[in-house]
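Lab notebook: predicted structure, single chain.

Context: the supervisor wants predicted structures on file for every construct in the current expression panel, including those that have not yet been purified. This is the next one on the list. No modifications to the sequence; it matches the entry in the shared construct table.
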Amino acid sequence: MTDIQYIDTESAEFDGTPKALRDHVAKLQEALKATTTERDTYRTQATSSALGDVLAGFKNPERVKRDLLSDGIDPLNREGVEKWLGENGDDYAKGDSGTAPAVTSEDAAAHQRLQQTELTSPADMSKVEAAMAEITPDMGGEQIKAVYRKHGL
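Prediction complete. Output recorded below exactly as produced.
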């Protein structure tokens, strides 16, 4: 893209120029500005559309898009984008953003009861701490409920 130089036709340099010509130049400059803005809008839309499909496999597509554009890759050149992703794609987390496991109404009710439990005494706190100490990352919902029940929570 080329830089467009604005010409101030009202300056002293253009005093001898006919008014109609200066007005016409001003109108053309306004039309150029509007066309440039419209072109940039369409280019942004085309870029988003072109990259949307390619970047769908990444957890943070906006970050990938930002880095791709900062490296000077034309987002409308699909081959160039795929080549760049082939070289740099391993730097970004792939896969869907993950979905939360389905929560049953029983799980929600148990969570609600736990939230409403008044933990006022040290004995109550020790129950929670003891239960938390037994919970491991590989436990499922039923196993965690069993641990809480075992400790009276």
